[in-house]
UniProtKB/TrEMBL annotation:
Enzyme Commission (EC) number: 2.1.1.-
Naturally occurring in which organism (per UniProt): Pontibacillus chungwhensis
Alphabetized PANTHER family for the sequence: TRANS-ACONITATE 2-METHYLTRANSFERASE-RELATED
Family recorded in the similarity comment: Belongs to the methyltransferase superfamily. YrrT family.
Entry superkingdom: Bacteria
InterPro entries: Methyltransf_25, SAM-dependent_MTases_sf, Uncharacterised_MeTfrase_YrrT
Residues covered by the Methyltransferase domain: 50-139
Name assigned to this protein: Uncharacterized methyltransferase QNI29_02070
Annotated Gene3D superfamilies: Vaccinia Virus protein VP39
Entry's Gene Ontology BP terms: methylation
Lineage: Bacteria, Bacillati, Bacillota, Bacilli, Bacillales
Residues where S-adenosyl-L-methionine binds: 54, 75, 97
Biological role: Could be a S-adenosyl-L-methionine-dependent methyltransferase.
Keywords, ordered alphabetically: Methyltransferase, S-adenosyl-L-methionine, Transferase
Gene Ontology molecular function, alphabetical: methyltransferase activity
Amino acid sequence: MGREFIDLFDGWAASYDQTVSGEDVEYKEVFADYDGILDAVVDHTKGPNVMEFGVGTGNLTKKLINRGHSVIGIEPSSEMLKIAQIKVPDAKVYDGDFIEFPKPEVQVDSIVSSYAFHHLTDEEKEMAISKYSHLLKKGARIVFADTVFETQASKRRAIETAIASHYNNLADDLSAEYYTDIPTLQRICKKYDFEVLFEQKNKYVWVMVAEKK
Ligand SMILES: C[S@@+](CC[C@H](N)C(=O)[O-])C[C@H]1O[C@@H](n2cnc3c(N)ncnc32)[C@H](O)[C@@H]1O
């Protein structure tokens, strides 16, 4: 579910790693300290068994494997998936999405993701967290890095700033995809018995660490 952006990612796969390295001026601030953000996700990850959603070209996957985790990756874009399989042959990457995915054969210790949860509507985000609350045991974690706003007003201001800077792709993206706010994620996590905290990493991206109570 939440797969309406897959064609975009199939088309973006070949140049995606150039975008995250800051070559696209519109997305420079979104991807500022991209490597440090992925490292922060790994720092908060509990092991050994990790499930990663929206692996893309496998950049977070590679860092998790290098840190000794065993990774089950889930990715709905076939073009992204092909690149990830070449870049990180030690990870098992399957077709799927945040809500519909093959049942893991091991007890998962952490569910992680970077730059992807905003593809789900808030209702779909709640369905996903509800599903993870059944998969995870006490003390296990969800660690998600993504663009998220402190309030809906700060989201509107970000869109206005992008328009004023003539960053039309960024403005369209912020308007069309489902970037949420921190109070919404706090409400969902609390409802499904997670204790949650947020760390701001750049102007757009926060890391959410939710631990099962
Ligand atoms: C911006 S990329 C992020 C890739 C990688 N995690 C990173 O940090 O560079 C977003 C990824 O989420 C995937 N995606 C899109 N919709 C999804 C969904 N509903 N469930 C899981 N992944 C999704 C895309 O195919 C793409 O690979």
